[in-house]
Amino acid sequence: MKRFLGLLLAVFLVLIFAGCSKDDGGDETQDSGSGSEQTETTESQADGEAGLAPMTGEEITLTYASWANADLNNFLAEKFMEKYPNITVEIVPVEFQGWNDNLTNLASTGQLPDVFWYLGNVDVAIRNGWLGDMTQYFEADPESENILSSLKVQGYFDGERKLAAPVTNLPYTVFLDENLFKKQNVEMPSPDWTYSEMIDLIQQMTVPEEGIFGYNTFTKLLTIAPIVNLDALTEFGFDGEKYDLTGDWADAVTQRAEFVRSGVHAPFFDTDEAEAAFGDRLLWAASTGRVAMQLDAWWTVGLFKQPEFIDKGIKWVPYTVPKGDNAETNRKPAFVDFGTISSATEYPREAYELLKFMGWGKEGWEAKLEAFQTLKNDDGTLVFEHPDGLPLIEDEDIWSGLRALLPEEKYYDDFLARAKEPVPLGGAAQPGFQTFLDEVYFGGEYGDVELAVVNGEVNAYDIAQDLTDKINEYRQAAIEELNY
What we know:
D-Maltodextrin-Binding Protein, domain 2, 6-stranded mixed β-sheet, 5-stranded mixed β-sheet, 22 helices, 11 strands, globular
């Protein structure tokens, strides 16, 4: 149920989901009714002075594909065309199910969109040579300086060329049932809580005799711990050059297994244990009122405001993932989706500007804030009950504009203030990662590694070095495929 809800929300958003886990801007807006030679010349000169090559004044068409909300895509495309009256943006309809396969089919007929998002696995884009080089535009663009520091370095897969950029930002979110904490006379943690404090609270809030579980998961401790404790750039302790699963990953996957076996973790969905605990094997643990923490994602903020939870006396409030005990940064995992320009586009300069506008750009985010407040369904209800993700740039006006669209509770002030160093998950952000997961981590000699540890079939510490060696080999092999 939860995975289905996550996918459904991601389609109409989205972290997964999120993954994703976005924002920056462009040039001065043209008069949408003009398109005169004088206006185009002025804007082109401004581009040139900013360091970017001038935009074309010719009539051109750019194609675009993303799984973002269709109404939002159309709204943003219209805003972009108002700014650049000579550019027509065509939204390419691509089915979310089998997204990368559908892109492959388009590419095989020479119809790969000029600008597109790839789903989860960057290895697909690498093997097919889809990624266009946007280095000269990104590095000459003054707006690139405003991108959140933890995201600015992403997309340089070979360490030299900017081949992709974050386009959405949906942070991991730890929800605490405030009402359950009050009932148990346990004080809510500080918004500056640490990883070890979260682990302690999970255990403290587990009350077997009352059928109360410390936590339930959509996201996992074994993903969180290596990032926050090692100030890593993605999962499994990646430091920009290599992975290391021998420390925090091994600790976290072992602790998770112990929590599952001892009943600290709520029973998994559709199991005999869930039926025994809740009387319904298909009831999501987070909707029972007997779970203290739900490790989840930003998009669930909207779901937890529904009457199903409120009527049961459940008050889920959002916390950011805690900071590492000895961390020097505030890096936290997020579902961050990535977009790119096609390596075959005829208009790379203009494609870059469209990618920025639809993703991290300030002007694009100003349009998104407008869309969140104005787009309506046929029945008059708002398309967005809450903002679709968080910004990807350091811009107080944008963050303040988004804050105004969220509930007034202080939890949201605390959350946003501590959610400005998002770290992408490995599949979309790092070459070789997803292929390693498919062929080794979930499908290799140990079977599903996480399940094997829970079942006591393997010891995480015994296999951690082997996994470390293999993932670094997969990374190197994937990078070598980037020579196109």
